[in-house]
Amino acid sequence: MDFLNKPSNTYPTIQVVRDGQEVPFSRYTNNEVIDDRYHFNQVVDPKKLGEVFSQERSSIRIFHAQRNIEKVAGWCRKFEAIFCCPVQANIYLSPPESRGFGIHFDRHDVFVLQLEGAKNWKIYDSPIPFPLHGEQEPPQEFVNRVGNAKCIYEGDLNKGDLLYVPKGYIHEVSSGSLPSIHITFGVRQLNGYDSIRKLVKSSHGNMSMRKSLPISAYQQGAFEEYKRGLIRIVAETLDREMDRMSTSFMSEERAVGVDQIKQFYET
Ligand SMILES: [Fe+2]
């Protein structure tokens, strides 16, 4: 809670939402300085933030809390060591009788831990199968899906309760008579699509990928040869990128990295 009093907090690390709509950041940030180049006007004013929270039944979200709160970062690192993938955390503070985010689904698995008070969760059937990052379901399809969905779980999370919400499952959350604080851990497990995205990105520097298909590939019947060459490059690049992905979240590797930095100061 003390974190919210820090003079260094900025939007969008701190966000405010009410009834599914984001409250404009100008309502709770210092907007005296008119200079967007350096974002002077996105520094959170704790007094304004407190007023918006208490008087307007708005919820506060601390986005990517692991970047700012050491204890939360430690929890995320523990999750990462288990799941071998990036894990990020958001903290939500809600006054009584409020509804922050509207009905929605997430594109990653989520573990919810109730830290204070209580919150009501409703989870619906008709999940979106394995939604991808950046993939947006057309709004009308989402509305239709929600309209036909049945609630498969409803319950209050109380202090210390943990809930697992698989990705793609539509859910909505509200607070009752008690104020609430909960933290969500977003487990961003990698999939085949992520591997291909890595492959495409790392192909940018490969001249064989940048060159146009040679005319000879069509005119002199050399297309099969060109295709086999390209498949070999793709396979090698994908193999290398997937090896990199598989090791980048192993905690042992991180410990070695810190030791390397320490050596600079110890010699
Ligand atoms: Fe969610």
CATH fold title of the largest domain = Jelly Rolls
H-E string: EEEEHEHEEHEEEEHHHHH
Distance between the termini: 41 Å
CATH class of the largest domain: Mainly Beta
Tell me the helix content. 25-40%
Bound molecules: fe (ii) ion
Work out the radius of gyration. Answer: 24 Å
Number of domains: 2
CATH architecture of the largest domain: Sandwich
Average pLDDT works out at 88
> Structural class, from secondary structure content?
alpha+beta
Q: Main β-sheet: number of strands, strand sense, barrel status?
A: 9 strands, antiparallel
Poorly predicted ranges: none
CATH homology group of the largest domain: Cupin
Work out the number of β strands: 11
Strand content: 15-25%
Number of helices: 8
Shape: globular
SSE diagram, text form:
Elements: E1 14-18, E2 21-22, E3 29-30, E4 43-44, H1 46-56, E5 59-62, H2 70-83, E6 87-94, E7 109-124, H3 139-148, E8 151-158, E9 162-165, E10 171-174, E11 180-187, H4 192-203, H5 207-210, H6 216-219, H7 223-247, H8 251-266
Antiparallel strand pairs: 1-2, 1-5, 3-4, 5-6, 6-11, 7-8, 7-9, 7-10, 7-11
Bound molecules: fe (ii) ion (FE2).
